[in-house]
Design a protein that fits this description.
This protein is mainly beta. The protein has one domain (about 5-250). Helix content is about 15%, strand content about 40%. It has an eight-stranded antiparallel barrel. A two-stranded antiparallel ribbon has the order 1-13. A two-stranded antiparallel sheet has the order 6-7. Strand 3 (about 35-45) and strand 4 (about 50-55) form a beta hairpin. The longest helix is centred in the last third of the chain and has 10 residues, at about 240-250.
Length: about 250
């Protein structure tokens, strides 16, 4: 079983991480970022029956080398595979002007093992990939490295957001009192507890930190060696088999 060991830094949480994208409406074939509508991170904590679906604002991951700062938010927390599969699946709807429209199912592009790690006065979201075995054009376009870490901070819902950024008040997280007290008037704080990631609408800042988290944070990743025959991720997420295999095992747009 895949896991993360820490030699020096406290682990807040570990589990499986999945990277997905959803093509634009009516996109028959994705050839690059212009055909991508949305990019997701999906976290499945070890020992818990839940899936946290995050949306990354820039449609790619922050560059660790440039220390990019990207917004993300927790879209929803799913307690069953069926509910998650329904969310990630194909959606058909009718419009007055264009008739029946189709939103393609999400594509799984990479998967691996992750850990939330306390490091000094901040917290890292760090991961190592299991699949695909070699990076393809999709991983490169989305800035998905073999290993990487991002400083992860959560925004105080009571603090103002920059113009044209952040969620409106209707969709912001409703944190319980114990979590709200941790802000103490600050606009952002480290994700000190994974409880912040259990409330839809939680707004996050991801800052590219390192391409070598094992060395930087004293971690040891022990990912599983997965193949097309042993990986159960396709069944787990309920995604279309052939399309998912092209993207996950070959690193190709699909």
């Amino acid at each position: 079983m895949a896991e993360v060991k820490s030699r020096a830094t406290p682990l807040v949480e570990q589990g499986d991480i999945y990277f997905l994208y959803r093509p634009r409406v009516e996109a028959d074939r994705v050839r690059g970022l212009d055909d991508v509508q949305r990019v997701y991170l999906l976290l499945r904590p070890k020992g818990a029956r839940k899936y946290r679906l995050l949306i990354v604002g820039r449609k790619r991951l922050p560059d660790p080398g440039r220390h990019d700062r990207f917004w993300a938010f927790l879209y929803n927390v799913f307690r069953s595979r069926a509910a998650l599969g329904e969310e990630l699946g194909e959606v058909r709807y009718r419009t007055k002007t264009l008739g029946l429209r189709e939103e393609p199912a999400a594509r799984l592009i990479a998967e691996g093992v992750y850990a939330l790690v306390r490091h000094g006065d901040h917290t890292h979201l760090t991961y190592a990939l299991e699949l695909p075995e070699r990076p393809g054009p999709a991983e490169r376009a989305l800035n998905i490295r073999r290993e990487a870490s991002y400083i992860i901070a959560v925004k105080n819902p009571e603090a103002a957001s920059p113009p044209a950024a952040g969620l409106d008040s209707e969709h912001e997280a409703r944190f319980p009192s114990a979590l709200r007290k941790r802000f103490r008037g600050r606009r952002f704080i480290p994700v000190e507890t994974a409880g912040f990631l259990d409330h839809p609408g939680a707004e996050l800042m991801l800052i590219g930190a390192s391409e070598d988290p094992q060395k930087e944070l004293g971690l040891e990743f022990k990912p599983d060696h997965e193949t097309e025959h042993t990986a159960d991720v396709l069944k787990d997420l309920g995604l279309p088999g052939e399309t998912a295999r092209r993207s996950l095992f070959q690193g190709q747009w699909a």
